[in-house]
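Case study: 1,4-alpha-glucan branching enzyme GlgB.
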Amino acid sequence: MLDHAEIIALCRAEHGDPYAVLGMHTDADGGLWVRSLQPGALSVTVLDAKTGKQVAELKHIEIEEVEGFFEGLMPRRRGSFPYRLRIVWKEGVQETDDPYRFPTVLGEMDVWLLAEGSHLRPFERLGAHLCEIDGVAGTVFAVWAPDAQRVSVVGDFNTWDGRRHPMRLRRECGVWEIFLPGVGAGAHYKYEIRARDGYLLPLKSDPYGFQAEMRPSTASMVCALPEPVEPAPAAAGDELGAPLSVYEVHLASWRRADDGGFPDWRRLSETLIPYVVDLGFTHLELLPISEHPFDGSWGYQPLGLYSPTARHGDPTGFRNFVHSCHDAGLRVIVDWVPAHFPTDEHGLGRFDGTALYEHADPREGMHQDWGTLIYNFGRREVSNYLIGNALFWIERYGVDGLRVDAVASMLYRDYSREEGQWLPNVHGGRENLEAVAFLRRMNEVLGQEHPSASTYAEESTAWPMVSRPPSMGGLGFHYKWNMGWMHDVLDYMTKDPVHRRYHHNQLSFGMMYAYTENFILPLSHDEVVHGKGSLISKMAGDYWQKFANLRALYGYMWAHPGKKLLFMGGEIGQWNEWNHDRSLDWGLLDFPLHAGIRNLIRDLNGIYRNNPALHQVDFEPAGFEWMAADDAECSVVAFVRWSRDRSRAILYVGNFTPVVRHGYRIGVPMPGRYLERINTDSEYYGGSNVGNGFDPVYAEQVPAHGREWSVNLTLPPLAALYLEWIA
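Here is what the predicted structure looks like once written out:
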């Protein structure tokens, strides 16, 4: 019989090794014992799993202050055999396989790789996995909690009672595991963890949970691991020379469901995808869709990194949505947040009673601006968790790229901190060397496993070579957001045109560093929140001029070297600042000036995609040539964009004053005809229809701007012109 101290520890859910005593065991005399903990049971009987016949009824061991422990010696049995348990409850009779009769689940190689922090796909072993063992269907649970005294799976299958299913610890890697027969898809569960000091922690959601409850509920749900998606083919030729125009979307507030709630994946497939395709964008970027507890974080404070948010439906719905995007010719980018995580008690914070995923010292592990925790990138299991997650979204859902949020906050230990609030690195510097190593490794793994996938860094500092390979000393991203360009140009557009002559360099300065990174020009969600106002409300001038300025801004952006990104609502000239709790103001499209903005975006994307001069050479000087960079007095800029073979060219001219300039002569690099393809002042876009008409403008051998040849143009007010060169 089992020692009373061990029985008491089991019944109090304080036993650190339940597999050593529960289930079937042989004693020193060769006797075969079965022990089971079933709090509240009236009786427990052992059945032969093959014949279904009763083998023995277990005795209820009654000890003061504890109950539910049953054990018994198997008569005439000298070797182990497969068995089931018949449990009599007050509510009825249950027959089930005993979880404690099954062998270990993790293989030796998995244990080795998890301990080493080098398991390429840890999500294939950790979390909840539907499976069949010895012909019995159920779910394997595995969770990393190396410093816990005891871990149990609790859920709607065991009345959320941590005594019923304590797990086995694989000490080599700090992972607790258990196979629960009969637990199937849709079961709700969490982990009950007793810390090393005996403190019972709040119930924890699964860090590797593949599905989660709809907030405010926080349980994980058993869900089949999605099958791998056939990887998208790598881009032929020069990927960096392909058109890349991104529509950034917060799914919950793009267009609400008819009942005012969240649209589901099917509805989004039917509405959002054709809308984005019609506007000519090449990519759809989704604000974080990982599960997150607080709507107001927009997903940027996630806790369920492996769970598509329940706000829009189940994981299969998201997978189908991505597939529908691909069918429509759209690539999908998801915002990914390895920079921090919130402190909600059901999440990763002090997961096993210690600072497991985060740093113990808040000078290393707390974002003061956001009140969130910072991952301990130097801990190999944490880095493995995050890198596996990056691979997971691309491999299991077919996502084409990850836009990594808040990279600057990862790179610097003193990010948004005063003196004395941060700890230097091992060399005494401010750089977060562990985060740098993590980002490089993440990009290397994605590049090796899925070379067609891309990564995008939101990085706002002068950190060098963000979009250069790690082999060159870079971070390995494909693209970096050009925050400097965005701030300069938006600031310029807020100024009254009469004063713009004094700030002309804000238009041209971006070319001084344009080739240091592979830049994306972002007009993102960050520019239309927190009192900053919408894009059109930032524009200078009266009502009409605000629209003209916004059209001129878009004209300049789509012509400028760099890939493009526009947040939803910018294409309709929304007046209200973005509100995550309501839909965009779609009724504005009933007004011609707002509809005109959308028409312009559609046409800009069209010429951008179809003319290689506007996208083929974004990151080298060969694709750009100034024609007029210094006409501050007239607030005019002009440049030529070239295709790689220089067979195609677009002359861009921007007039950032409300003055119509007749007879404005622009130097051009070669003779020929120049045909007006885009005029943001067209009446079709809501403009005054001043311009150069449909007839080509011929270059004349008249010097201008240091060029032998020039064209004589009419520049419309607050407008951009695109003129295609025809030899």
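For the exam, be able to explain this: The CA atoms of residues 387 and 445 lie 8 Å apart.
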